[in-house]
Amino acid sequence: MMADVNERALELAHNNAAENRITNVQIQISDIYKQLQQQTYAAIYTNPPNPCW
Length: 53
Description:
single chain; 1 helix; about 25% helix
């Protein structure tokens, strides 16, 4: 499962999955966990924005 609130990031994720022939992934829009509440996960990895100081 890949989730992001940014539609451009999701478009890139779809393109990368297709280019690399990845078929066992779900990609969906979600603001943090709001749309993912009905699922359980063994691990969650995050890449939060890094503010420029």
